[in-house]
Amino acid sequence: MNIRQAKTSDAAAIAPLFNQYREFYRQASDWQGAEAFLKARLENHESVILIAEENGEFIGFTQLYPTFSSVSMKRIYILNDLFVVPHARTKGAGCRLLSAAKDYAEENGAKCLTLQTEHHNRKARSLYEQNGYEEDTGFVHYCLNVPSK
Questions:
Q1: Beta pairing partners, 62
Q2: What's the Cα-to-Cα distance from 70 to each of 73, 80, 136, rounded to whole Å?
Q3: Residues 111, 71: contact at Cβ < 8 Å?
């Protein structure tokens, strides 16, 4: 298994995984939209995508979005997406992707990696906790949904 940073030319191959990830979160299937979204993020250097590849097949990915902490005056990465195809979930791809994300954040001087997942996503929460992530009990997180125009 190889973990590497995705290039713009990888967007089409990552799109099916990204589409499955979105379907997990109850979004309608949209392969073309998934590819366009990923390609735009990569072309515009708006995210970093790390992919797990085995025998020429993409079996997982994680997507990191850069942001900043005003208080610490350091970069933060939001680990926004982590997905491994079902048939590869016992091969350690999730752990390897999380490790690669941590290494990337360290190499780029980040203060931390943050993430969120749904309360009921017990498997993901267990994976994150096994890899050193701790539930944030010090802050309350809010979200304001902005209607589309």
A1: 50, 82
A2: 5, 20, 18
A3: no
Report the alpha-carbon distance of residue 44 to residue 30 in Å, rounded.
Answer: 21
Residue 78 has what DSSP assignment?
E
In the chain the domains, ranked by start, together with CATH numbers, are 2-130 (3.40.630.30)
In this structure, are residues 51 and 10 in contact, taking their beta carbons and an 8 Å threshold? yes
Question: How far, CA to CA in Å, does 139 sit from each of 15, 20, 60, 64, 125?
Answer: 34, 31, 30, 21, 18
Tens-digit pLDDT profile for residues 6-51: 999 999 999 999 999 999 999 999 999 999 999 999 999 999 999 9
**Residue 136 tokens, joined:** 């944030």
Sequence-ordered list of residues with C-beta below 8 angstroms from that of 117, at least 6 positions apart, any chain: 124, 125, 128
